[in-house]
Amino acid sequence: MAWYKLAIQPDGDVWLVTSPDFEEVASFGKTQEEACRNGRNAIEEAIAGRIADGEDIPHPAQEPEGQGRWVEVPMMVYLKSGIYMLMREKRWTRADLQRALGWNHREQIDRLFRLDHQTKLDAIEDAFKALGVPLKVDVPFHASAAAA
């Protein structure tokens, strides 16, 4: 659903990983697989940092494209990033979103942007609706489910 490219290269006895989408991402691993995991974690931290600093988040690819290594960020990271970028596009503050949602507590809004918080899907869906972009999910069901 949301993919970012990694660049992996040997560096002595470890693998160095960076991301062309995030200049601040640099990590390593003893194996290429470990480097990819650490690269994904570094991308998540970069996204959290950009949200905290009020900076843009690069648009992810919907599918891995071309050669190279790609990592998929978790769905919740993707959704929270989407809410944040829609707010920036609309030039809304967190207070604007709070008013649109009719939520009484600022902490509820702040949790929408904490990537380590397991926000309920209802709150995510409500935030997208408040921003004028209803959340759409496409799940392919097995053909036998249609016959039931």
Brief digest:
With 148 residues, this protein is α+β, with helices and mostly antiparallel strands.
Please give a structural write-up.
About 45% of the residues lie in helices and about 20% in strands. The chain is of the alpha+beta class and about 150 residues long. It has a four-stranded antiparallel beta sheet with strand order 3-2-1-4, with helices on one face. Strand 2 and strand 3 form a beta hairpin. Helix 3 packs across helix 4. The longest helix has 22 residues. The radius of gyration is 18 Å and the shape is globular.
> Per DSSP, what share of the residues sits in E-state strands of 2 or more residues?
15-25%
Largest sheet: 4 strands, antiparallel
Gyration radius over CA = 18 Å
* Overall mean pLDDT: 93
Distance between the termini: 28 Å
For the secondary structure, the number of strands is: 4
Flag low-confidence runs. none
Features:
148 residues, alpha+beta, 4-stranded antiparallel beta sheet, 6 helices, 4 strands, 46% helix, 18% strand
Topology record:
Blueprint: E1 3-11, E2 14-19, E3 22-29, H1 32-53, E4 69-72, H2 75-90, H3 94-101, H4 106-112, H5 121-130, H6 143-147
Antiparallel strand pairs: 1-2, 1-4, 2-3
Helix pairs in contact: 3-4
